[in-house]
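Troubleshooting log. The previous run stalled partway through. Resubmitting the same two chains, unchanged.
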Amino acid sequence: AQKVTQAQTEISVVEKEDVTLDCVYETRDTTYYLFWYKQPPSGELVFLIRRNSFDEQNEISGRYSWNFQKSTSSFNFTITASQVVDSAVYFCALTPYNAGNNRKLIWGLGTSLAVNP
Amino acid sequence: DAGVIQSPRHEVTEMGQEVTLRCKPISGHNSLFWYRQTMMRGLELLIYFNNNVPIDDSGMPEDRFSAKMPNASFSTLKIQPSEPRDSAVYFCASSLCRTTGSCTNEKLFFGSGTQLSVL
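Second attempt completed without errors. Output:
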């Protein structure tokens, strides 16, 4: 079975704090993709990053960084020096690398991040 | 560039009424997805199309739900008759699948969603 767990339902931080959003996944596939999406208050989900299971190199994009640890089946997301505009719900998702017509993303339930001024 | 456009943004209807949600994907995208989001169940894939053809509708809750994609630039999701438990946010998303067959790694572009309330 495939599953994505985001154990943190809600996180509240003060602006400029660093915050890490956890994502733990389960899959029997040896090759797969992991994603993070952001859902701001306006509602639409926005793609942040895609990582394939072959590449365990961490990635940094501005204040955002992602730590992929295959050994612990985790793909955590860190926001450095958080800002109010980072307030949103963040979703982690998983999909098999080659799934034929089974193209369903497996979504976590999301972590709601509130960054307070 | 215009993103995925959904209409209406909000829909309030009474139980038993027909509801039609509309979606215009990003021009050039060849895959379209309908999702439903609720607090209890999170994001659920209802159906997706590839090149206007429905590929997987196993997520459609029941026969009251139907979806069509008559052309590459338009899709509808219809609920008839609607029930209070259908209340949710319905998202449309599109993507460009660059390979034939499996295409599981493309990123999705979402619309702003339709907030449906069935009274």
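Takeaways: The first strand of chain A starts at residue 3 and ends at 5. Chain A touches chain B through 27 residues (CB under 8 Å).
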